Amino acid sequence: MSEIKLIGLDADDTLWESEIYFAQVEEKFLELMDKYSSDGDLEQTLSSNEITNLRLFGYGVKSFTLSMIETAHIASQGTISSSDIELIISWGKELLQHPVTFLEGVEETVRSLSKEFDVFIITKGDLLHQRSKIEESGLDTVVAGFEIFHEKDPESYLDFLNGLGIKPENFVMAGNSLRSDVLPVIAIGGRAIHIPHDLTWDYEKVSDERAATSSYGIVNSISDLPQHLALEIR
Q1: Structural contact between residues 76 and 37, judged by C-beta atoms closer than 8 angstroms
Q2: Strand 145-149 and strand 119-124: pairing?
Q3: Cβ neighbours of residue 173 under 8 Å, at least 6 residues apart?
Q4: Distance of CA 49 to the CA centre of its chain
Q5: Strands across the sheet containing 119-124
Q6: pLDDT tens digits, residue range 173-194?
Q7: Residue 186 C-alpha from the chain's centroid
Q8: At a CB cut-off of 8 Å and minimum separation 6, what does 65 contact?
Q9: Nearest of 194, 183, 64 to residue 129 by alpha carbon
Q10: Quick one: which of 18, 70, 106, 122 is 20 to 30 A from 58 by CA?
Q11: What is the domain range of residue 48?
C-alpha cells in the first residue's frame, strides 16, 4: 500500500450542510409556482435547466437562482410578477448568507487528521462563496490549504496534484459525491473514500453499474475516517 502524503476533503455535505438548504428553497419555489403552472414535472424541469446552465453559470447558488428565475418565466409563460421574481432572488441571497453548519464530528476529525497528514479542503463552485464558507468555518487555519476547482474531473485532480508534486497513488480523497469526489480520483490511480450524505443533488448521482466498477472505501461518518485510514496504512 502506497504511503499517504496528502488527504483531500470535500466541503459541501462532507464538512458542512449544503444540499438541505437548496432543497428547502426548491420546496418554496415549487409552492410559489403552484399559482402559475400545473406542470407536475416542474421539479424535473428545474433540475434539467440547472444542469444545462452549468456550462454557462457554473456551480453554486447564483446558478441555481438564475435557473429558478428562468424556469419560473417559462412555466408561467412570462406572467410571473416582479414581486415574485424579487422573492426568488431573496431566497438566493439567503442561501449565500447561510451560516456554516458543521456535520457531526467534523471539527474533531479534521484537527486529528491534520496532526498526522497534510490535509487540503478540495471543493468546487463559486470561488467567492466557497472561499467565504471555508474561511467562516475556521478550518482554513487548521488544514494545510484549500483548493476550489471549476470542475472535479480527473484532469483537475491531476493538475492539482502535479502542482504539489504529489503522485496520485499517494493521494486519498474523501467526500459525499461519487461523481465528484470518488470516481475521478480512482480514474487517475488515487484512492477515494465515500462518505454518504442523506441528500444528494441529482447531478452528483451515478448509476449503480458505474459505481460497482470502481473500488473505493466507504465510511458512514467522517468521524470514522481516521480509523479507516489507519487500517489502510497497516
Answers
A1: yes
A2: parallel
A3: 7, 8, 9, 10, 122, 157, 181, 182, 185, 190, 191, 192, 193
A4: 18
A5: 145-149, 119-124, 6-9, 171-175, 191-194, 217-218
A6: 999 999 999 999 999 999 999 9
A7: 18
A8: 88, 89, 91, 92, 95
A9: 64
A10: 106
A11: 19-96
Question: Quick count: other Cβ atoms within 10 Å of Cβ 83?
Answer: 7
Rg (Cα) of the chain, in Å, rounded? 19
Residue 215: pLDDT band (50, 70, 90) is: confident
For residues 73 and 164, membership in a common domain is answered with no
Which cell goes with 141?
A: 487555519
Length of the chain: 234
* 3-state SS class at 146: strand
pTM > 0.70: yes
1 falls within a domain:
no
Assigned C-alpha cell, 174: 474523501
pLDDT tens per residue, range 142-185: 999 999 999 999 999 999 999 999 999 999 999 999 999 999 99
Tell me the CA distances in angstroms from 149 to 38, 92, 127, 175, one per residue in order.
38, 22, 8, 14
